[in-house]
Amino acid sequence: MSQLRLLLALPVLLALGFSARADEGMWPFDLVPTAQIQKKYGFAISDAWLEHVQKSSVRFNSGGSGSLVSANGLVMTNHHVGSGMLEKMSTPGNNLIEKGFYAKTRADEVPCPDLEVNILWSIEDVTARVNGAVQPGMDDAAAGKARREIMSTIESESKDKTGLRSDVVTLYQGGRYSLYCYKAYQDVRLVMAPEKGIAFFGGDPDNFEYPRFDLDMCFFRIYENGKPLQAEHFLAWSKNGTTDNELVFVSGHPGRTERLFTVEHLKFLRDVAYPLQMRNQWRREVQLATFRGRSPENARIAEGEYFGVQNSRKARTGILEGLQDERMFAKKQEAERKLRDAVAASPEYKAQWGDAWDEIAAAEKTYATFFERMNAPGVGNGSLGGLYGTARGLLRIAAEDPKENSQRLREYTNARRDSLLQQLFSPAPVYPELEIDRLASGLQLMTEMLGADDPAVVQALGGLPPRLRAEQLIHGTKLGDVAERKRLYDGKQAAIDASKDPLIALAKAFDAENRAQRKRFEDEVDSKERAGYAKIAQAQFAIYGNSLYPDATFTLRLSYGTIKGYQQDGQQIPPFTNFAGLYQRSEERHNQYPFELPPRWAGARDMLNPNTPFNFVSTCDIIGGNSGSPTINKAGEVVGLIFDGNIQSLVLDIAYEDEVARAVSVDTRAILEALRKIYDCQAMADEIEGKRKG
Amino acid sequence: MSQLRLLLALPVLLALGFSARADEGMWPFDLVPTAQIQKKYGFAISDAWLEHVQKSSVRFNSGGSGSLVSANGLVMTNHHVGSGMLEKMSTPGNNLIEKGFYAKTRADEVPCPDLEVNILWSIEDVTARVNGAVQPGMDDAAAGKARREIMSTIESESKDKTGLRSDVVTLYQGGRYSLYCYKAYQDVRLVMAPEKGIAFFGGDPDNFEYPRFDLDMCFFRIYENGKPLQAEHFLAWSKNGTTDNELVFVSGHPGRTERLFTVEHLKFLRDVAYPLQMRNQWRREVQLATFRGRSPENARIAEGEYFGVQNSRKARTGILEGLQDERMFAKKQEAERKLRDAVAASPEYKAQWGDAWDEIAAAEKTYATFFERMNAPGVGNGSLGGLYGTARGLLRIAAEDPKENSQRLREYTNARRDSLLQQLFSPAPVYPELEIDRLASGLQLMTEMLGADDPAVVQALGGLPPRLRAEQLIHGTKLGDVAERKRLYDGKQAAIDASKDPLIALAKAFDAENRAQRKRFEDEVDSKERAGYAKIAQAQFAIYGNSLYPDATFTLRLSYGTIKGYQQDGQQIPPFTNFAGLYQRSEERHNQYPFELPPRWAGARDMLNPNTPFNFVSTCDIIGGNSGSPTINKAGEVVGLIFDGNIQSLVLDIAYEDEVARAVSVDTRAILEALRKIYDCQAMADEIEGKRKG
Known about the structure:
The structure is a homodimer. Chain A is of the alpha+beta class. Helices cover 47% and strands 15% of the residues of chain A. Chain A has a domain at 27-116 and 186-259 and 551-688: Thrombin, subunit H (Beta Barrel), CATH 2.40.10.120. The longest helix of chain A is centred in the C-terminal third of the chain and has 43 residues, at 502-544. Chain A is globular, with a radius of gyration of 25 Å. Chains A and B meet through α1, α9, α10, α12 and α18 of A and α1, α9, α10, α12 and α18 of B.
């Protein structure tokens, strides 16, 4: 309950979403407020510093961040970012999640089945070109289509020209478009992971809590042309670590925030979107728990998915609690009123931007009428499992590929093909029992959401109850076999037409409605939101100047802040924990799961320095997606590894605050000590300390 | 998955709901099909046999069944029926659920804080009197009101006359009304409970599964005037137990079935009621799991509630899967068509009953329009926790008591007062943290269901987010104190009016809408269902004769069947398990929770006979509420203790089948051996074996 009691103590100055205060902001690297930082901290950020940090930062396309920490392509991230790979590389007899892993030599480093990591190489503002594609007289839907087409064209041209992965990113919900070019690597190998028991010590009960005692780390190495990447930039390991009140930076990829949303848009999230999404998530969490309870092997194969659902449930609960707080809404309303008043005060502004808020409100009202169906499995975006996703992908590629590049659905354009094929042809294991559970869950949910007499449901179930139908489909499909996927991909439309695969057939049955739903969303919601938010962004730039950062979009951002404790339930929580605290917490919880120490740790108490800082908190502005980000000092050295926010930080999704919201890092001093004393990873420790070359 | 694969193997003869086949039926004791049983099994059930079994059967008003097993009022039931009491009688330092309990002497038997058990003493058909209250020209709503009034009057008269607890029970959804009179006992004491680890061995994963290895038993003693009840009837313990293919009976209190529902009514359950109820249940299961994870004490105080939610989730999942099976619906449709054709074939029948199905369909259509709001917490029936329930009870009693008895809401009539006051003034512990969690959950759910701008929500939250509001309300209320409840009860309306208690205030805020919802349900749904189902019942009696049993209503029923294994996944499952199997199952699951044996059992393997039958299955027709029912042989002796159905039996809620659906019992031989060898309960074992008097 503590997190909510504390919300009461929030200052009236909850950020209002239109200007950056305090240490607020997840800043794109071309928009970092260097003057503001210099003014407050007396630290001048140079272009070289920015480039160094940018090119030392890594994005995990599976959903997370990381950093290069050696000249030889060693990448540090979180265990919970790497765990998806660990799971795919495990077998019933060799559970890497449970036991951990360390490659003693380069030859022992294990290639990941389907991981792509990106390093941001350049940013270019392409707003003018994107908006230039919109012809006078186009309605919002036509304008949206024109923008999507030019974005695909820009990406394709850039990819052809540079060879880099090229994404046009929508910022400020449509206020700015930037071309992000990345070096993309698909040969990534596992180097080191500790046991989940210490990486995620405290499990779900302690997740998003603080004080904390987690060694949530995992190391990979990027390979290029079969050899370790010779990194132009990487973060040196700080010799002395960080200290209370020090200025620090976080460079990473926050996934999504909704701070710039209008009041009516937030109400849509609060009353429509989040309740529906959460109720499907509660459901899936219980289903996965029961699936895992059936056998130790089930527990192993569904561990990552279960963690993902639990983590997301806890995060969304926090956001929804924020949205359900009338005091938060009052502040959002006040900020919006001020901006609208300022717009209304100028006839020119009013004519250009005055209708933006109503336009967005109307779009959300429309969206609410078909949101549920659009989120149902099959006919909408709800999941029917991994193999069904493969079936739909193959069906769509065959249909989209003959089209001109700019006319395709965005995920099937040329610029995205490498990543798409890596996923499609992934050799990662497919577990039929888990696929049956996922598909059954999806079919049940679809049946519940639409009613069993809905024609789409009747067709999907084929006269059987959902679980039996799922068994029939998964036992009947051949898409678990990579060769069969390749055959269907290579055979193009003719192969798809000829296919009798039951999952392909199911995807065909849903395709028309699914595309219609998407078109409706693009034309009636997304295009209108883009139009409205572009206006609001312009109004804000005009009225408040450039002190505005865009909402998070899983692109590289820089945050800054200080190491700082906070008040909770009337107690001062110090910024650092240490190894001694770990053992104490385990004892308090009778060393019972999920507070049970792995054997290596249980026996190592005397070998460790009890005072070594373990985890710490800072005021840096982060959100989900920042997992694995480096915490960096002014010298550009790494001092910590972001792995969580405290429970008070969940509200950062919709509004910034720095009184009690905190980012949580693993201290690099704990990492080094664990590598040397617990895991005997001397070579790797030498490498990150710069004591070992090549 | 096995359960669903097996549904495929179901014979075409799935019961059609209008006539009892095979060993189908949960029979009221005044309607037992003795001729049918004699014809099939050659066993003539005498009136004396029926009376003996009836008066040896016990209902736990907390929701379960049991039986008298000694002349001195010893009652046997399931651990999971008694566990609510065990939880209330536990303290942080003395967890009876975990450790078990045995009263070595009568003096050690511990009084339960708020348990009432009933023994059915008489049944009287009062259909004519109830229907006689309906005057010509009354519409369905007025007829419904008239029936409720006369039911309250009959109950009150009977209570005054006999002193017995008197309930008018609606059978056949309105086709028959019976007056059930019970001896009611509120002085019930705990005698013996094993550890939950053996009572619920296998936990949620094995719940509703078979083969099974659970000692799901618990013993209480009824006291009368401070002394052990001298029971007129009790079940003798069978010397030899039961055997494969033997005819057995189950006497207990099945809670609810929906076998007589019309097709449109079942569709309402499938598409409206169950999906909504289940999604609230998934949610609560996760919330309770996270609450329990926060500390060992949280785990203790919420254990029973968590089990209840899990158990109900698994049961409802099975029922919903049945409802989502088109093949089941086809059979229901066929049966309904046959009956409707038979009615349509007779002008007289058609005029009397022909519109019944459409009438019910219209009622469900109406209900669907307000079902969600009616099931929201606060304004509807959704829960806001135990203390809120107390507040609403006090508010309602004060408002209802001044009314003439027949005009009151049914739960506040004179005949129900003893039970009501026992609950209201229960000294069972109240845990503020758990109450906060329940209330917060309810307020959140209400906010999600109605939207945060709904006036009822705005009023309920008072400007705070749900959890913070829940903390404020629970910290502010005094209703945890029994003396305060008594003060408000004794002070009547004046005390309620003067009360500043925040939970009383909240109940007041919701009262008008809550009553309006209920009235709307009674007038527009319940009254119409009763009218429609009364017609269908009459049509069935006319066309099929008396071979029809009513749906379950948590009143005493007799089922019968034989001890019999079944086929599952192509394997023959034998009817009996034994102690050897218990140890084997524990080893297979690495002795890990919930397959971890309690210390007493882990060390006792060599003391036990490995071949002692432990659990067994029979074809007896049971459902939730039958938990704790005795399984009885022809001699009227107890041979088993019902504690579960297999997963294939969940569909019994809507349709009978006996190919694979099975009732699961603890074998009395295992009970006796455990009492003597594991628990050293010699006095109790002597008592149930009839070796000890007084």
